[in-house]
Prior knowledge:
With 123 residues, this protein is α+β, with helices and mostly antiparallel strands. The chain contains four helices and three strands, in the order ααααβββ.
Amino acid sequence: MGKKKRLQQVKKKQQQQHAASSSSSGPRATPSSSHPTVPRLCYAATLYLSNRIKQRNERIRVLNQIRARWIRRRVMKILVQHCCILMGKLLKSFFKCKRVFFIRKVVKWRPLLLLWRRGNQIV
């Protein structure tokens, strides 16, 4: 039950973030030319993901006391995957699009760049 509530809070926060970032583009951005917003969106996504990972620092700190490296790696992997799934869902609903693609850099599980698809055209 608590998890569901937390997800709702995160969704709210994310929608507020997006509202702020989309309103800052102002009247210049027409629906046909969505390109100026892409870098801003990628930045917002990476920021959001890194914040989500920072929130889990407590858990990771506990894990750091366990010397088994593969456990740490596995947990980190799961955390990042969880963030991706959540982020994908939020972005899909925000842009009313079918798919969200994440590109993962393997080095240190860096938060991700994203592309989304409208119809067959990759923006």
